[in-house]
Amino acid sequence: MNPSPRLKYSPDLNSLILEGLTEFLGDQKLEMLLQAMPADRLRFDLESLHEALRAAYGSQSAAGILVRAGRAAFARLLLKFAAELGFEDQGFRLLAPRRKMGVALQNLADWLQRQGAGRFEVRRVTNGWQWLHRVDFEGQTDNRATMACPFLLGMLQELSYWVSSGRIHPIREEAHSQGCLLEIESKPLD
């Protein structure tokens, strides 16, 4: 398989996305999926991949595949870019759990933004954090940009497991007029 098929993001993010999808789908099914993409487009994005997955597997299965791919992509991100994200710094490692989660969410948002994945905002709210992936970049419409939500949800699930040493922080997708809004609860399930 070609390691960098036509994705619009940076080479580092392209690699993570494709490795995550390969881990779940396998090389052969991913190659078939990429071949099914419209030939008139030179570069694809997660939204286009989600559409192809929906056509091949159905809506719920496509979302599940992207969640699993997002988890796998974050695991690889830790192996390759932990230092760049500041996750290896002693100051980060010694932060209080809630502060550590907020810093990790912001560092990931900043890194994804630098990789060309769009605009991200992280906000602290009463019971946790909000992660907003805005659609008002590159002239995208609401419908197209929110399709990347399952992948981002998977990345945030894996990030929260890692930051909290395996504890589960509920994350839910909320309707938002400006894009994909994910809410992460500060209190983990016990």
UniProtKB/TrEMBL annotation:
Classification of source organism: Bacteria, Bacillati, Chloroflexota, Anaerolineae, Anaerolineales
Organism of derivation: Bellilinea caldifistulae
The protein's name in its UniProt record: 4-vinyl reductase 4VR domain-containing protein
